[in-house]
């Protein structure tokens, strides 16, 4: 049987990932928002991780092969995908008690995690000798990335609002998208 709710959520995540390939300001992307959304709404935990990571992978392939002509792999990718997986984990935390405050806190936390993890990756494996492998080099790497952090915060805030707010509106007008309450006995 076709599960309209599940396929709508998967579609939302893949559309969000596709937004990475349209022109945008640097780092203003829906990566964290789609990972949070997947974690918060996809009931199957395996799908909650698999769908955002698969969407990310497909958009990376498009960007790598058709936009930048570099192929899809770069040395910092494990750090990027690791931060996406952690953000799905934040979405699982949000799932239990969804509220605007919790969603907003998770969005900001995901921005900070992405900044810290990916820039550590740039310093460790992806800087091509730009930053020495010292504490000073790591500090220089983080310092150089600060101007991009604002864009990460803006992108995560805007896309989180669009995904979570948009889906809440869809649920209001399309009953098939509403979550079915879980009987008390099933939760035990």
> Whole-number average pLDDT?
86
Unreliable stretches covering 5 or more consecutive residues:
none
* Largest beta-sheet details: none
Task: Briefly note the structural class of the backbone.
Answer: mainly alpha
How much of the sequence is in beta strands? under 5%
**Relative helix content:** over 70%
What oligomeric assembly is this protein in? single chain
Features:
188 residues; 7 helices; single chain; mainly alpha; elongated
Overall description:
The chain has one domain (4-176). The mean pLDDT is 86. It is elongated. Helix 2 (31-41) packs across helix 6 (135-173) and helix 3 runs antiparallel to helix 4 (77-96). It is built from seven helices and no strands. The protein has 188 residues and is mainly α. 74% of the residues lie in helices and 0% in strands.
Task: Give a quick precis of the structure.
The chain has helices spanning 4-18, 31-41, 45-67, 77-96, 100-126, 135-173, 184-187.
List the helices and strands and how they pair.
Blueprint: H1 4-18, H2 31-41, H3 45-67, H4 77-96, H5 100-126, H6 135-173, H7 184-187
């Amino acid at each position: 049987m076709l599960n309209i709710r599940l396929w709508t959520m998967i579609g939302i995540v893949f559309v969000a990932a596709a937004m990475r390939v349209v022109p945008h300001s640097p780092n203003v992307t829906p990566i964290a928002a789609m990972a949070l959304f997947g974690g918060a709404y996809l009931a199957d935990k395996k799908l909650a991780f698999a769908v955002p990571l698969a969407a990310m992978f497909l958009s990376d392939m498009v960007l790598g092969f058709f936009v930048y002509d570099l192929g899809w792999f770069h040395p910092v990718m494990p750090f990027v995908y690791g931060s996406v997986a952690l953000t799905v984990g934040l979405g699982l935390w949000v799932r239990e008690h969804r509220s605007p405050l919790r969603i907003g806190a998770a969005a900001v936390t995901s921005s900070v995690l992405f900044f810290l993890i990916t820039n550590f990756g740039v310093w460790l494996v992806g800087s091509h000798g730009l930053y020495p492998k010292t504490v000073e080099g790591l500090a220089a790497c983080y310092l150089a990335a600060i101007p991009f952090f604002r864009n990460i915060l803006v992108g995560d805030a805007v896309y989180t609002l669009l995904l979570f707010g948009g889906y809440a509106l869809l649920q209001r007008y399309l009953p098939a998208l509403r979550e079915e309450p879980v009987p008390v006995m099933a939760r035990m």
